[in-house]
């Protein structure tokens, strides 16, 4: 079985879409006006962004992007920092090299690579 899509409610569809495309390589695969956007990853899974009001995700909620290695995690971290995004530095956590970044959509994104595999 393959995950087809994940729907995320966000207050600002355009800003969230731009952020996910710019930093995480997602591609637009459709638009539902200003209220919806459909983004796809390299495995053809889709993230649907749906406009909503007063969105509040639980503190532990996040989506994750796995990188091939420490260098890629560090490079993405540095790119975000250079662009003025407030993001704490990567750290060794649960067997991975990881950092978390808040998205414009109000949810957290984890960037990691697994260590020792």
TrEMBL record:
<dbReference type="InterPro" id="IPR037523">
    <property type="entry name" value="VOC_core"/>
</dbReference>
<dbReference type="InterPro" id="IPR051332">
    <property type="entry name" value="Fosfomycin_Res_Enzymes"/>
</dbReference>
<dbReference type="InterPro" id="IPR004360">
    <property type="entry name" value="Glyas_Fos-R_dOase_dom"/>
</dbReference>
<protein>
    <submittedName>
        <fullName>Glyoxalase</fullName>
    </submittedName>
</protein>
<feature type="domain" description="VOC">
    <location>
        <begin position="2"/>
        <end position="114"/>
    </location>
</feature>
<dbReference type="Pfam" id="PF00903">
    <property type="entry name" value="Glyoxalase"/>
</dbReference>
<dbReference type="InterPro" id="IPR029068">
    <property type="entry name" value="Glyas_Bleomycin-R_OHBP_Dase"/>
</dbReference>
């Amino acid at each position: 079985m393959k995950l087809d899509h994940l729907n995320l409610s966000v207050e600002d569809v355009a800003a969230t879409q731009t952020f996910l495309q710019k930093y995480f390589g997602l591609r637009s695969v459709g638009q539902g006006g200003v209220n919806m956007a459909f983004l796809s990853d390299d495995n053809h899974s889709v993230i649907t962004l749906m406009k909503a009001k007063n969105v509040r995700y639980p503190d532990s909620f996040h989506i994750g992007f796995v990188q091939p290695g420490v260098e890629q995690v560090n490079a993405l971290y540095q790119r975000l920092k250079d662009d003025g995004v407030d993001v704490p530095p990567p750290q060794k956590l649960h067997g991975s090299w990881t950092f978390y970044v808040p998205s414009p959509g109000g949810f957290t994104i984890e960037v990691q690579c697994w260590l020792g595999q």
